[in-house]
Structures are given as C-alpha cells and as structure tokens.
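Hey team,

Filing this mostly as a record. A colleague (T.K.) asked me to run one chain through the structure pipeline before their review meeting, and I want the input and output archived in the tracker in case anyone asks later how it was produced. No errors, nothing strange. Just documentation.

Input sequence:
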Amino acid sequence: MNENKKEIIKYDFLYYIRYTGDAFFYPFVWFFFNSLGYQNSQISYILLIAPAVSFFVNPFWSIVSKNANSNKIIGGIFSVIEAVAIVLLIYFNAPLYLAIIVFLIISIAGQPFYILLDGYTVNFCTEIKYEYTKIRIFGSISYTVATLIAAILINRMDYTISFYVAGGLFILTSVIMFLLRPLESSSNTEIAQKADLKLLFKNKYFYFFSLVFILWISTQTSIDSYLGGFFKDIYSYDRSQYMYIMFGFILTEVIVIMLLFKFGEKINVILIVLLGMFANILRYFLNFLQLPVPVIIIASMLRGISMSFYIYSYFRILKKIVKQRNITAANLITNSVASVYRVSVILAGGYIANDPSNYKYLFLIGIILTVVGTIFIVPLAKNRESVNYDVGNW
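Output structure:
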C-alpha cells in the first residue's frame, strides 16, 4: 500500500469518526432543549447562536490563517474545545442563560470546524488528484447508523451517555487530525501562500456562487431546524420515530452520492444544483400542504437528494472558480454571510412555529427563498467557459 492510500484511509476514518460524534449530539439539540420545557421561540434564541457566532468567527480565521496546514492545527484544537463544552452542557441543563453560554462556546469551536476540515481535505485531494466526495461519503455513512444508535441510547437512558460519546469522538477526531500528513507546500506554492482576499473579492462569479448555495442550503438547514418540531406538533411523532425518518433521508443521501460517483461526470454540474434546489422546493410544497404522514415521510427523502447534490457540487464548482489558496477563505466567507442569513430565518421560524398551525408559512418562505436562489445560477451557467480573475474553465 503506497503512502497516498494510507493517508486516504486516515481521512476516511477521520470523517467517519467526526460525523458519528456529530450524530450523537447535533440532531438532538432541539429535542434536548424541548425536554427541558423551552418553547420554540426560546429554542430559536439558542439555535441562532451558532450562525451568529459564525458571522464573527469565520472571517477572523480567514484573516489570521497562515496557510492550509495551519488550518489543520486550528481545527484539531477546536474539536477538543467543542467536546468539553458538549459534556458541560448536560450539567447546565436548566437555566436558559447557562445553556446559552455553553452553547455559545460549542458554536465558537464547532462552527468553523467543518469549513477548516473540508478546505484542508479538498487541498489534499487536489494534491493527489483524488475525488473529495469519496472521502466525504464516509461521514454520511456513519451519520446514517449513528443517529439510530444515539436515539436508542437516549430513549433507554437519557441524553448524558449520547453526549459523552459525542465528546469522546470529537477528541478522537482531534487526535486523527494531528496525525495527518502535512500538505506538500514545498511543491505547491498555492498551498504555501496565504489567501489572497483582494483577488477573491474581485471575482464576480464567487458572489453568484455564494448566493446560490446560501439560498439553497442555508434555507434548508434553517428550516430543517424545526423539522423535528413539525413532525412532533403536526403528526405527533416522538423523538425515536423522527430518528427513523432522519435515518431514511440520510440513507437516501448515501445512495444518491454513490450513484453520482458512477454517473455524475456525465451530468452538467449546474443541472445537478438545479435539481437539488427543485427537490427542496417540492419538499417544502408538500410540507406546506400538510398531506397525510406517509406522503410527508416520502417527501422527507427529498432532503437526502438535495444534500447529496450539494455535497457533490459545492467544492466541485468552488475549486473551478477560485484559486487553490483561496478555497478555505472562500468557504469561510460564504459561510459567514450564510450565518447572518440563517440567524434571520431561524429567528423568524421560532416565532412562526410557536403556533403549530403556522408551520405551513415556514415552508412557504422556504419555497420563495429557494426559487430566488435559482436566479443566480444563470450567470454561472452562462459564463462557465469564461476566465475572469480566479475563474477557470469548468
């Protein structure tokens, strides 16, 4: 086995462990606070902490980051801080102000983590000419199984064991990150160089890219913050029943990604983005109608399709429109802007969903915002052979 294959196995294991830890904590945040008696409007204040923190933290790291290799070290440290804070959360589970403080710490460490990890991984894949999605799929596979295991643990015991497991796996994530081979900056000046923000901000296609993915995926993640509440309040589904639904759309995500491995290269990447956005629009519309639960459950599988198309297309497009040294910075900036957007949608959603009869209006907002996002695909599609600042042929 050559050195690159050994390194790929480390990355596969890293994504598997990290997303398993994620599955033992983040899907249950809404249920955890709901079990403490918080209303949707109060939970919305807690949920919006993460995107609000992202707005301030992500640009900071894009400025101070020296290069891709330094991002690996920063990400490893963040994972340990996040682990400790998650364990502390179960001890401060009554007063709202203490829950907010601890979740603030979790968000400061957790919000930049995936951006730093994905940016580093994309640079590694570019270096050895390997497909990023083939590593990322291990995260989706682990998430599929881990959410069910976590739900069983929580139902039979409580949140304590599940949160301890998450913390332990996040610490293991940090260990694996420190064991990764440094990127070959000596042979790749793009990796060795600091991000060129001036060049990035002159790239008009970067703005179109950001708007498309913000209005598509940030709308999805914001509205899906209340998906558990939607099934609970409208269809009387408890936590364990909802986890089976989550298992379904994550399994759908894995299956579709595997199909994209085989057939994705034959499909225009812009078309893949449009199909992902349409999947969400259709799902929101069916949820808006509040049809019988079997229909809504099937519609929920469309989330897996949307997410798989996002995973497949995001870095595939970003690598083509920005220089390699700007990949992490572009990702951080896009997510910082997205964080402000998510704060607005989550906060509005908390007040809308306080009355269960108003969930349909939340999904109507999702339809409108995603449709607006499709408008900004046009400049990307029309100029995909242009070269302007960072832009290359794709």
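Quick notes for T.K.: The chain has a mean pLDDT of 84. Residues 44 and 369 are 20 Å apart (CA to CA).
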